[in-house]
Write a structure and sequence with these properties.
heterodimer, A: about 180 residues, mainly alpha, 6 helices, about 60% helix, about 5% strand, rod-shaped, B: about 1000 residues, mainly beta, six-stranded antiparallel beta sheet, five-stranded antiparallel beta sheet, globular, ER membrane protein complex subunit 4 (chain A), TMEM85/Emc4 (chain A), transmembrane helix (chain A), transmembrane (chain A)
Chain lengths: ~180, ~1000
């Protein structure tokens, strides 16, 4: 994703010579235009060329952004497979996988702006890819949480909340017993 | 969540550690065992031969033992049953120790050198009577020597060789109380009283037991006390007024007597006379007030006062030192010393021995003295004396010094409590037990060698020695883990000992002055010991103290003695002799500002007295007045009553610390079908971690945890006796679980065909009890767990998330929560002497039952074996939860005996104390022996094991740091070279 940035990005040109003289008014020139030369038509030509170029670039950016946005899907499938392999009992492997499944989407969500930064362009609509990216990552997170729950590591049961409740204090106190012998 | 992880860890641990066991080299690391014999009743010296010098003793704890005379160690020892009281002990044929026990019905011979039993004879009889063991004192062992035993109303002649009863003469019909047997070569005279004034003498043929002649005489008045033999045929006895001495002669069966007033012998002493039971040839000792009179009986039957000793203590039996010389010892007190004199009976003015000995004040007076002689190199006679002290300890005195002493009072522990040790403070020097760094390193290097298996056998021995006498465990300060404590034990002698849990040594001991025999207090008994003051928060400067409750005599109406003892120093802080009696002592759950616990003492007169007697205590009690209840169990009438405090006493003398109480409820068991045989409550200081029990399907059961529960076991009245006296149809066992505030019966269950004895233990929400099943002919153990149904609908997770539940708000027994009980029964192989449960600091660690078996060992049994949730085929989830498949009997795994190879002879009780380390519980077992150990029911999950090699860890860290440094230097150098290239 980042590789295309240096070669094709808008900042790729190191130098430029402006062959066209942008001043359109004939009065400012010393020499009148040769006959048959229409200054206006050249201008026209040049602007269409650059517009075409920019269009291609933004198209390419949009396409890339969509690709980036879809990337977590593969991850998701991979993760699902790994989880299925890990089984449902608590041990080191399954806990490791579950926590990596939780960590990956969270870190991806944190850096969502950074990931889409290369494709930032005034003419590229990034909201769609971003939303997809976020949705897919949230899906990954959900999968991780689901796995966590399947392992029984989420406090979703009453037992998780009461297991450390101290016994209630008693109001009355009663002692005694048999006669001391 | 976390609980699941915890379960998993527990499961893992339970697979690896289904049994608690230890390795051979761990014996003695955390446990100690002390052997005792109890208070000596009879002692017989065996020093004739050149071999090992020994003394044979029988004790009040029913122990027969042979002690080394040089060091006081036990050569051999036999602890007879609790009902097998030893009446007589002697040596026969020079090689057998003969004991007569069980009211004279069992005669046993033990081999003298090794204590093996040679023969045993049972001497049955119907009449209860005094039992007399008479063994002829012949220096040359004669095969024909008879052992004469009078017991159960008949005289038995038993062969000393094989224990065969040669002949038997029954006196059961004669209504005679035989008190003496006089043996001559072929005639045996049996003398005794009929009533208190008629003396009868029977002459029997020594060979066949035939009655040869019979004679009787009536004395002018009745008699008091025992007949004492002065010489072969002369006896003395006091008349019933205790003012005259009656001298009786039995010459060849003829009876003649004369009498003499005590005042004729000595004029300045008056009082109640008692003849001391010391056997002296031609003499006897008379005790009047604090004087001991030694009176000689001349051949003409005249009495001559030989000596008068003030502050006399004890007189020994006589000892024959040569053909016609007899010596005896007596002791008297004077200027803080004990004066021991050995005198010749015939030559009064000459002392064979006169010694003064300083004996620790805490040992009290001398109770009994036994003397023995030895021949010195210059052919003169030397004497050694075995003294039994008031605190039941045993001393051997020789040449004016105490050669050895045994603290045998510890064989009769009555009650136990514990105390923390002092906190280690700045400036308090503990340096003498601290090791220096070099030794520490040396020790760890040795350990490292052991770990790396490069240690030589010598090193291994050194490691073991190092581990066994680790100074760490016997320090006199508090430790982090709470392993070091003081065990404060009260013994039957009224002596209080503080034992260090590290090595079992006696830190201090005090013979309570208030529990010593005095005129005001005839038969003092120590009853219980309570923790009086346990400073931990704001009163740390004060020393903890304990309260000893005693009573002057066995009856309930005897006066009370209260004694407060400093637990660090063993000084008696104060002692009280209150006017009221003590039927019950109730420690309340409240303490005052100095951390003194409030106690209510209930007398037999329906009053309750508050201690400590301070206005602050009154305020605290007034504040909790309506919440203090108590209950009384009247086992004789089958009634349990509940009471509450009412108001101050209505008496002539105003006592604001005295309260009346009112009866609230009573549970009356039908006397024709039920009799209370056992009751049990929870320990008041038990800590419970959680009120919820999580089932396998994440469901929750709420434990019914109340301190006010009482377990009662009732047996059918017919079946209250011993096992085997009733048929199964007549026997049943009914168990109840009562609330002692309201008297409500929470649970009732009947075991048909079962009977006691019942031993029970109550902890958290469960009770485990042990009884006998007559139908199955086996012992059984049952468990009952009680759950609170009224809390069961607290199932909404959100209420817990938001904290909107009332599970921890205080509850009252009057709210009458609905409970359910689950129970299950299992067979158990052993009969049981005591059951206890481990207790830990926070109550998180799983529990183990500690069962004192009939073999005097302690078995640790996981509570998981007694779980009503056990089924024959537990599901996978249940198995994961640690539920063991149901079997009909509880397993006895030999490795789970916490006493390993040792026996705690005469086991009577088990005490568990939590250590500060949650995983560990301290266990103290007492009986004739004492045993202490630490156990960790779920292994020591919260600490490194003691054999963890810190040196190895240190070495690894050092090696790693070195490796990091070296590789860093190498990589730097390589980088530099790369850059130059």
């Amino acid at each position: 994703m980042d590789k295309g940035k240096g070669a094709m990005g808008s900042n790729a040109r190191r130098w430029a010579v402006d062959f066209s003289d942008n001043s359109t008014s004939p009065s400012s020139r010393d020499v009148p235009d040769p006959p048959g030369f229409s200054r206006a038509s050249i201008d026209q030509d040049d602007s269409t060329l650059s517009r075409q170029k920019k269009d291609a670039e933004s198209n390419w950016k949009a396409q890339k952004a969509w690709e980036v946005a879809q990337a977590p899907f593969k991850n998701l499938l991979m993760m699902g497979f790994m989880m299925w392999m890990a089984g449902s009992t608590v041990h080191l492997f399954s806990i490791g996988i579950t926590f990596s499944a939780l960590w990956q989407p969270i870190s991806a969500l944190q850096s969502v702006g950074k990931i889409f930064e290369p494709y930032k362009d005034s003419r590229v609509e990034l909201l769609g890819p971003k939303l997809l990216f976020i949705a897919l990552n949230l899906g990954g997170l959900a999968l991780g949480v689901w796995k966590l729950n399947a392992l029984g590591l989420l406090p979703t049961h009453t037992s998780d909340w009461v297991s450390s409740l101290p016994p209630a204090q008693e109001v009355e106190y009663s002692g005694g017993g048999g006669v001391l012998i | 969540m976390a609980i699941r992880v915890f379960h998993f860890i527990l499961l893992f641990l339970s697979f690896t550690n289904l049994t608690y066991s230890l390795y051979e080299d761990q014996v003695g690391l955390m446990d100690w065992h002390q052997k005792y014999i109890g208070k000596v009743k009879h002692a017989v010296f065996h020093t004739q031969k050149t071999g090992r010098k020994r003394v044979l003793v029988s004790t009040e704890e029913n122990v027969v033992a042979s002690l080394d005379l040089r060091h006081g160690e036990i050569f051999w020892r036999h602890v007879l049953g609790t009902n097998d009281v030893i009446d007589g002990l002697d040596i026969a044929l020079g090689k057998y120790v003969i004991t007569l026990s069980s009211d004279g019905s069992i005669l046993r011979a033990w081999n003298l050198p090794d204590g093996q039993m040679v023969w045993e004879s049972s001497l049955p009889g119907s009449k209860a009577s005094k039992s007399i063991l008479n063994i002829p004192k012949n220096l040359k062992a004669d095969k024909d020597d008879l052992i004469l035993v009078y017991s159960k109303g008949s005289l038995n002649a038993v062969s000393g060789v094989d224990g065969e009863v040669l002949w038997k003469k029954d006196f059961a019909d004669e209504s005679i109380e035989v008190s003496h047997i006089i043996q001559s070569s072929d005639v045996i005279y049996v003398a005794g009283f009929v009533g208190s004034s008629k003396i009868h003498v029977y002459g029997l043929n020594a060979k066949s037991g035939e009655l040869l002649d019979k004679n009787h005489a009536a004395l002018p008045s009745g008699t008091f006390g025992e007949l004492l033999s002065v010489s072969g045929d002369t006896f003395v006895v006091l008349d019933e007024m205790r003012s005259k001495i009656v001298i009786i002669h039995l010459k060849n069966g003829e009876i003649s007597y004369n009498q003499k007033h005590i005042s004729d012998l000595t004029e300045d002493i008056a009082g109640q006379a008692v003849i001391l039971p010391s056997r002296l040839p031609g003499m006897f000792a008379l005790n009047i007030n604090s004087y001991v009179l030694l009176i000689k009986v001349t051949n003409q039957g005249e009495l001559v006062l030989v000596d008068k000793v003030n502050n006399g203590a004890a007189v020994s039996d006589s000892l024959s030192i040569s053909e016609d010389e007899h010596a005896f010892a007596f002791v008297h007190y004077g200027d803080n010393k004990i004066h021991l004199s050995v005198k010749n009976v015939n030559d009064w003015n000459h002392d064979l021995l006169k010694e003064s000995i300083v004996i620790e004040h805490q040992r009290g007076k001398i109770d009994k003295i036994f003397v023995n002689n030895y021949v010195r190199t210059d052919r003169s006679h030397g004497f050694r004396a075995l003294m039994v002290m008031e605190d039941h300890s045993l001393l051997l005195v020789q040449q004016g010094e105490i050669v050895w002493s045994r603290e045998d009072g510890l064989a009769s522990v009555v009650d136990v409590t514990t105390s923390e040790l002092p906190v280690q403070k700045e400036g308090v020097s503990v340096a003498k037990v601290e090791q220096n760094l070099f030794e520490w390193l040396k020790g760890h290097m040795l350990k490292l060698k052991g770990t790396l298996m490069i240690a030589s056998p010598d090193d291994l021995a050194a490691i073991q020695a190092l581990r066994l006498r680790s100074s760490e465990k016997s320090k006199m300060t508090r430790d982090h883990n709470g392993f070091r404590k003081l065990l404060i034990v009260l013994t039957r002698a009224g002596k209080v000992f503080a034992l260090h849990t590290g090595d079992g040594r006696v830190v201090w001991s005090i013979l309570l002055p208030s529990l010593r025999k005095s005129e005001a207090c005839e038969n003092p008994v120590g009853l219980h010991i309570y923790q009086w003051q346990v400073p931990h928060h704001h009163a740390l400067d004060e020393n903890p103290s304990v309260l000893v409750v005693g009573r002057c005599g066995p009856s309930l109406s005897a006066p009370t003695v209260l004694s407060f003892i400093d637990a660090y120093t063993g000084m008696e802080l104060k002692s009280l002799s209150p006017a009221h009696t003590a039927a019950q002592v109730i420690p309340l759950p409240h303490t005052d500002s100095t951390e003194q616990r409030l106690h209510l003492i209930i007398d037999d007169n329906q009053h309750a007295y508050l201690y400590p007697r301070t206005p602050e205590a009154i305020d605290i009690l007034k504040h909790e007045f309506s919440n203090v209840y108590w209950y009384s169990v009247d086992a004789d009438n089958g009634v349990i009553r509940g009471h509450a405090l009412k108001s101050n006493c209505v008496q002539e003398a105003v006592d604001e610390y005295c309260f009346d109480f009112r009866d609230l409820w009573s549970v009356v068991f039908p006397s024709e079908s039920e009799k209370i045989i056992a009751t049990m409550t929870r320990k008041p200081n038990e800590v419970v971690h959680t009120q919820a029990k999580v089932m396998t399907d994440y469901d929750v059961m709420y434990k019914y945890i109340s301190k006010n529960l009482l377990f009662v076991a009732n047996a059918a009245p017919k079946a209250a006796g011993e096992i085997g006296t009733v048929i199964p149809e007549e026997a049943w066992l009914v168990i109840y679980i009562l609330d002692t505030v309201t008297g409500r019966i929470l649970h009732r269950m009947t075991h048909n065909g079962c009977q006691g004895p019942v031993h029970a233990v109550f902890s958290e929400n469960w009770v485990v009890y042990h009884y006998f099943n007559l139908r199955a002919h086996r012992y059984e153990m049952s468990v009952v767990e009680i759950y609170d149904q009224s809390r069961a609908d607290n199932k909404d997770v959100w209420r817990f998330v938001l904290g909107k539940h009332n599970l921890t708000s205080p509850i009252s027994s009057y709210s009458r929560p609905e409970v359910i009980a689950k129970s299950q029964s299992y067979f158990f192989t052993h009969s049981v002497k005591a059951i206890e449960v481990t207790s830990t600091a926070k109550g998180i660690t799983s529990k183990q039952l500690l069962i004192g078996t009939i073999g005097d060992q302690v078995l640790a049994l996981d509570k998981r074996f007694l779980d009503p949730r056990r089924t024959v085929n537990p599901s996978q989830a249940e198995k994961e939860d640690g539920i063991i498949p149901l079997t009909d009997s509880l397993p006895i795994i030999p490795q789970s005996y916490i006493t390993h190879a040792l026996k705690v002879e005469g086991l009577r009780g088990i005490v568990t104390v939590p250590a500060k380390l949650e995983s560990t519980s301290l266990v103290f077992v007492y009986g004739v022996d004492l045993f202490f150990t630490q156990i960790a029911p779920s292994r020591t999950y919260d600490s490194l094991t003691e054999d963890f090699s810190y040196a190895l860890l240190l070495l690894t860290i050092v090696a790693l740091v070195a490796a990091i440094f070296v590789t860093w230097v190498l990589s730097e150098r390589k980088d530099l070279q790369d850059k130059w290239r």
